[in-house]
Amino acid sequence: MTEVRWLDEREQRAWRSLMVMQDGLSEFLDRQLRTRCGLSDADYQVLAHLSEAPDGRLRPFALGGLLRWEKSRLSQHLGRMEKRDLVVRERCLTDQRGSVVVITGRGRELIEVAAPQHVADVRSAIIDLLTPAEMRTLEAVGDKVRARLEQLESGNPGIDPTE
Length: 163
What we know:
Layout: H1 9-37, H2 41-52, E1 57-58, H3 60-67, H4 71-83, E2 87-91, E3 99-103, H5 105-125, H6 132-153
Antiparallel strand pairs: 1-3, 2-3
């Protein structure tokens, strides 16, 4: 068994700062969406992906992959969105066993209202606050962590970070 490498004071501050920032930003953006448009962040993500897809249609497995959601979470959330007439599920014409998620007219109207306000909130909360150099650093850190997570999730940890 290897010895635990506890975080030192600087590492602890950085980690906690990241967690507080992430939680605070998510809560702020979700609250703004709910207050202004009646959409949750999850609703917004689904509608944004569908609105960007050809004909506003995606197979559930493709949508789930974009959202990084488990199949059951996606199915339950789509059910709630169907009840609110934001999306419909239709039979897939090329695979009779499959389905396609389609944005409705009401869903498209809501995302078209929400998107400009959401982008303004993102700009106000983070984008316009950072310098171009800070934006490049944020992007580089995000890319580096995402790549590492893919390595770890694939069971290929690669190099030992302690070396």
